[in-house]
Design a protein that fits this description.
Elements lengths: L16 H24 L29 H4 L7 H14 L16 H7 L17
């Protein structure tokens, strides 16, 4: 019977066994703390921020309909590039809008469109009438 092959020496552990237990304990404490935070932050009830559906923006912008370009008007809710260009064309053909309600004269602008863009319209300054003019 041949002699058994000599065994290779057992390598020393990379981390000492006492340190392994300390590291395992620290990892367990960190995991418990993370689970506690997630529970207290409402993570299991869906109260954390959903990054796929962020909350609606609260920044409100306004435009002066008598000075805005078609690109600026197209940013208003319910207006696309074509409708914005119609507003600019109407303004160029008929002069400045005296009030927001005058936008109803633009083809395609109705009560619903005006209601959607009204919060974004700056108040229109009334041009003073010269003395003696009617």
């Amino acid at each position: 019977m041949p002699a058994p092959a000599p065994r290779a020496p057992t390598p020393e552990p990379f981390i000492a066994p006492a340190a392994q237990q300390l590291i395992a304990g620290a990892v367990a404490v960190c995991l418990a703390a993370a689970a506690a935070w997630l529970t207290l932050a409402g993570g299991f009830s869906g109260q954390l921020v959903d990054h796929d559906a962020p909350p609606p923006a609260t920044v409100r912008f306004t435009v002066n309909v008598n000075q805005a370009s078609a690109v600026e008007l197209a940013q208003l809710p319910g207006l696309g590039p074509a409708m914005a260009q119609r507003i600019v064309d109407h303004r160029n053909a008929h002069g400045d809008f005296p009030s927001p309600e005058a936008l109803l004269d633009v083809p395609g602008v109705g009560e619903a469109t005006l209601a959607a863009i009204r919060p974004h319209l700056r108040p229109l300054a009334q041009t003073p009438t010269p003395p003696g003019a009617k």
